[in-house]
Amino acid sequence: MIKRLMAEAKKEYYTARELADKLAVNIMTIYRYIGAGKLKAYKLGKEFRIERAEFERFMNKAKIK
Predict the structure, then answer these.
(1) What is each CA distance from 2 to 26, 40, 63, in whole angstroms?
(2) Averaged pLDDT of the chain
(3) Distance of alpha carbon 39 from its chain centroid, rounded?
(4) Which of 58, 61, 60, 49 is nearest to 11 (CA)?
(5) Which pLDDT belongs to residue 16?
(6) Burial environment of residue 18 by CB neighbours within 10 A (0 to 12, 13 to 18, 19 or more)
(7) Sheet strands side by side (includes 13-15)
(8) Rounded CA gap, 51 and 59, in Å?
(9) 28-33: Cβ within 8 A, 24+ apart
(10) What pTM does this model have?
(11) Are 50 and 19 within 8 A, CB to CB?
(12) CA–CA separation, 53 vs 44, rounded Å?
């Protein structure tokens, strides 16, 4: 159990604000993606956290071929 928690703590997470800044979009756009289920996130208190791997999956899915 402790090893699993330590592994989880080492994962990299973004806040909704960080992703909005990174993508140059309004933070409400990120909240809409989360609400629509397009971007999976964890809610801690009033803030959302998005795993780096989830963000990369989201971006790959949005990529135009």
Answers:
(1) 38, 24, 37
(2) 89
(3) 6
(4) 49
(5) 97
(6) middle
(7) 13-15, 47-51, 42-44
(8) 12
(9) 33/58
(10) 0.80
(11) yes
(12) 18
